[in-house]
Amino acid sequence: MRVADDELKGLEGEASKMIDIAEFVPLKSVDPIYFEKTYFLGPDKGGDKAYRLLADAMDKQGRVALAKFVMRGKESLVLIRPAQGGLMLHTMYFADEVRDFGEIDRGQSAKIRPGELELASQLIDGLSNDEFHPEQYEDEYRHRVLDLVNQKVEGKEVTVAAAEAPRAQVIDLMEALKESLAKRVASGEKRPLAKAKRSEEAAPAPPKRAAAKK
After folding, report:
1. Start-end of H helices in 81-202
2. From CA 60, how far away is CA 88, in angstroms rounded?
3. pLDDT at 60
4. Which of 27, 20, 19 is nearest to 83 (CA)?
5. pLDDT in tens, 27-71
6. Cα distance between residue 37 and residue 16, in whole Å
7. Distance (Å, rounded) from C-alpha 85 to C-alpha 87?
């Protein structure tokens, strides 16, 4: 069976600047797996007040808008949220476009000892911050490429460093966690953490905590 281009063209939605809002939901209720691309959204001519009103109202209510929008002939599901004093638009995948774990193993058969869970929790505590600061993460590959280009522009002889030998795969997760914790303490970046018991030793069960609702 063949489908002609003009037949597909006839199925495209009519381009429109209108965004049809369907509902408002809490941002935390939307799984990031559905996000595709991000755009800055500005007001149309004469729409300053409506734009400002929507941005301020959503910010006050702590909610985001789910809507549909025709882009390049294709109807897109979008999320609009208040950010940086304005509005941002995220195109989203539809539910049938997103895969789930299905038959992928998620380690359900693994048995976790209390001491192991405590050590992993200490690692999280030692690496925890209250806010995300994107500026502290840099694209090291991009820097290396720019350095290479600059050296060539300046006529310098370019020396490419030898590739590092592949490291042996870490099999013991407990040892990997301990090594990571030791590095954090040695660097002085975080306060020393309580020494966790070895996984081989019996450790008392930690006090029960109320389960955090996602």
Report:
1. 114-126, 140-153, 173-187
2. 16
3. 96
4. 27
5. 999 999 999 999 999 998 899 999 999 999 999 999 999 999 887
6. 19
7. 7
